[in-house]
Each structure stands twice: as structure tokens, then as C-alpha cells.
Design a protein that fits this description.
8-stranded antiparallel barrel
Length: about 140
């Protein structure tokens, strides 16, 4: 008698534990920001601007008025500002920053980084007052 039918018999009668195999596919890593659900933007992020050593703390959650968008805050150098935005049709993360909650003081435009699975964007931050720009890196650090 070969070992295979004997092993199968033990498995069928419960003498050996069965190994469950999930029928659901593993969650795929988004390679394009347009494939990224808005919920992937929720949570805590760190932002670095240019070659400045200090990191800024960013927190984003669901926008209360626009379900497909985010709203959040950024704290850098001890100052806080509001953020709101989404992923546009071209796949860019677009965030509006407001120092006073009324007018846009800066705009962020970033691209999802390959292999980051939605956890890193790189792009350009532009000051609305004087059009000064600075590169930024935004990395997710927590839920």
C-alpha cells in the first residue's frame, strides 16, 4: 500500500489536522494611485520638505462633507494647518493646505511611489502667496 492513500485516510478520519486554504486572494499592492481606496489615505503620516531636517506630523481621515476625499491636519514647527484633498483623475494626490481654515495657503501635488503600496507619495508643495515650491515626501506611519 502506498503512503498517499494511507495519509488521505488519516486526514479524512480526523487523525491529522486539515490545513485551511483561504479562497480570498491576497490584497494586491496598489501600483497606481487611482487604484488606491480613499481609506488608504486615512491615518498618520510624516512629511519631509526639501532637505529640512524636521519632520511634520500629518493626520488624515474621511472628509465630513465629501466621502471620496480626506480632511486632516499638519503640524510643523509647532504650527498647525488644515489639509483637504483627494486623488485626482490623473492619479495625483492633491492636498490643499490652509493656515486660517478659509483660504488656501499651499497646494501639494504628489505621486504614489512604486512598490510603496500606497504608503509613500513624493511631489511638490507650492506656497500660494509667492509660488515658492519645495519637494516633499509623505510617508504613512500608522493607522
Amino acid at each position: 500500500m502506498s503512503a498517499r492513500p494511507w495519509l488521505l485516510a488519516l486526514l479524512l478520519c480526523g487523525a491529522l489536522p486539515a490545513v485551511a486554504v483561504s479562497a480570498e486572494p491576497a490584497t494586491a499592492c496598489a501600483t497606481d494611485a487611482t487604484d488606491l481606496p480613499v481609506e488608504a489615505l486615512y491615518g498618520r503620516w510624516e512629511a519631509r520638505f526639501g532637505d529640512l531636517p524636521a519632520l511634520a506630523d500629518v493626520r488624515m481621515s474621511q472628509h465630513p462633507e465629501y466621502p471620496g476625499s480626506v480632511r486632516g491636519t499638519i503640524v510643523r514647527d509647532g504650527r498647525s494647518a488644515q489639509l483637504s484633498g483627494d486623488i485626482d483623475d490623473a492619479g495625483f494626490l492633491i492636498l490643499d493646505e490652509s493656515q486660517d481654515g478659509l483660504s488656501i495657503s499651499a497646494v501639494w501635488a504628489g505621486e504614489l511611489q512604486p512598490g510603496s503600496c500606497g504608503r509613500e507619495f513624493r511631489g511638490t508643495w507650492r506656497n500660494s502667496g509667492d509660488d515658492r515650491t519645495q519637494p516633499f515626501v509623505l510617508r504613512k506611519t500608522g493607522p
